[in-house]
Amino acid sequence: MIRLCEERDVTRVCEIYNYYVETSVITFELEPVAEAEMRRRVENVRQDFPWLVIEDEGKIAGYAYANRWQQRAAYGQTLETTIYLDSDSHGRNLGTTLYRELISRLARRESVHALVGGISLPNAKSVALHEKMGFEQVAHFREVGWKFGRWIDVGYWQRTLAPK
């Protein structure tokens, strides 16, 4: 089941995200995010855009959301998309189902023209998901993040939505 994130989901969202903060270069945050901060982030996004969760066997297995890509007014119709799955939920098509729903909701909005996804590289699973969803690589920045004692590249994938 896919639904909008609610207050009761923040603890689980925080657990999913902090796993990646502590164990991977998928996010460039260096310290785990407190629940109060995650709650603030969810509330800020939900003012304008969907923050979705996917449940699997009664447990939140992942989340996806969209937010402004850049703050300048001319970028207003371009959003950055984000998706995280519980580390035990990969390989079951949950990411595809969740991301497809997020993109579908965004595509129905007159105010959304383009979607951008930033991916730390290498990350074959995320690249495959984005390309499956119709994103194309448009940029590759070399050694722009430093985490766990090494430099990390970041690629950007973009999908332009059909005119409404």
Give keywords.
single chain, 164 residues, alpha+beta, Aminopeptidase, seven-stranded mixed β-sheet, 7 strands, 30% helix, 35% strand, globular
Topology order in helix (H) and strand (E) letters: EHHEEEHEHEE
Low-confidence stretches: none
How would a crystallographer describe the biggest sheet?
Answer: 7 strands, mixed
Between the first and last Cα atoms, what is the distance in angstroms? 27 Å
Q: Structural class of the secondary elements? A: alpha+beta
The proportion of residues in beta strands is: 35-45%
Strand order within the widest sheet?
A: 1-2-3-4-5-7-6
Count every helix, treating DSSP H or I runs of 4 or more residues as helices. 4
The CATH class turns out to be Alpha Beta
CATH topology: Aminopeptidase
- Provide the CATH architecture: 3-Layer(aba) Sandwich
Q: What number is the mean pLDDT?
A: 96
Overall spatial form: globular
- Into which percent range does the helicity of residues fall? 25-40%
Q: Give the strand tally.
A: 7
What gyration radius follows from the Cα positions, in whole Å? 15 Å
* Domain module tally: 1
Classified in CATH, the superfamily is: Gcn5-related N-acetyltransferase (GNAT)
Task: Give structural notes.
- By secondary structure, the protein is of the alpha+beta class.
- The chain has one domain: Gcn5-related N-acetyltransferase (GNAT) (Aminopeptidase), CATH 3.40.630.30.
- Helix content is 30%, strand content 35%.
- It is built from 4 helices and 7 strands; from the N terminus they run βααβββαβαββ.
- A 7-stranded mixed β-sheet has the order 1-2-3-4-5-7-6, with helices on both faces.
- A hairpin with a 2-residue loop joins strand 2 and strand 3.
- Helix 1 crosses helix 2.
- The radius of gyration is 15 Å and the shape is globular.
- The two termini are 27 Å apart.
- 21% of the residues are buried.
